[in-house]
């Protein structure tokens, strides 16, 4: 099977939302009047971001999901994507499952694959995603102000706990591991939440490297500090059980791979945030507040600071 056969068979689909999709030197995309294009790229590397034997259907899902999460954090409607993929060989059974997982999620969010590249090499997956958002409604990292409440969606730490189990750092029961593994391999991008936060959130980011690391980006961009209530963090019973050891605390605060949204909103918008949670049937937890100054303080139930250690994942540390 040639490179071009591979593209035609597994990655060429109709792209009704594009003027021109896969098959030419570039895609042609028409954005709506008054909108700006939100663009983001994410790379997943075998051995760094996923185990080589990961189920290819789930890997196809996650490859797109992590990019959709960036669109959610900007409050953008995802529209188009390109996929650059390096493959050790053209394994047709693997490609069938990977592309099925990728396109199943793409269809759910109305995303057209409009181009990309293929080459032989160590397994490496890189998606560039394009979305639309009204210029004045894009969510940014730089809008947090003292007095704003800090919120997170969903649950934190399950993906990191699953990874710790796979690495042999902790032993989970079969049912516990199955639930945590779903969070690791099938993250759910919070696109609907990002759109609902237009005019409500003052800043937002998706949690990919750990809550403290990603909230830290909001604090840096906003030139502000934060105070967090550790016991307000939304975690599963599996994560909370492990609070007796540093690993459990680390998973909740700095584990990464959650792909939930962390956002800030003025305290006056509290009831509105709760209405959004009810409308989307998505748990949203208030975990702290933005304060003047710099840095982030995490407080235990009696108000003492928690020493967290590493604040999140960094590829070069």
Strand order of the largest sheet: 6-8-5-9-7-10
Helix content: 25-40%
Uncertain runs with pLDDT below 50, 5 residues or more? 313-317
CATH class of the largest domain: Alpha Beta
Largest sheet: 6 strands, mixed
Instruction: Give the ordered list of helices and strands.
Output: HEHEHEEEHHHEHEHHEHEE
Radius of gyration: 20 Å
The CATH architecture classification of the largest domain is Alpha-Beta Complex
Name the CATH superfamily assignment of the largest domain: PurM-like C-terminal domain
Derived from helix and strand composition plus strand pairing, the structural class reads alpha+beta
Describe this structure in words.
The chain has helices at residues 3-11, 56-74, 92-109, 158-166, 174-185, 191-196, 211-222, 237-241, 246-254, 270-280, and strands at residues 35-45, 77-87, 112-120, 124-134, 149-153, 203-206, 225-229, 261-265, 284-291, 295-299. It is of the alpha+beta class. It has two domains: 3-137, 2-Layer Sandwich (60s Ribosomal Protein L30, Chain: A); 149-299, PurM-like C-terminal domain (Phosphoribosyl-aminoimidazole Synthetase, Chain A, domain 2). The strands form two sheets. Strands 6-8-5-9-7-10 form a six-stranded mixed beta sheet, with helices on both faces. It has a four-stranded mixed beta sheet with strand order 1-4-2-3. Helix 3 (92-109) links the parallel strand 2 (77-87) and strand 3 (112-120). The protein is globular. Mean pLDDT is 90; it is low at 313-317.
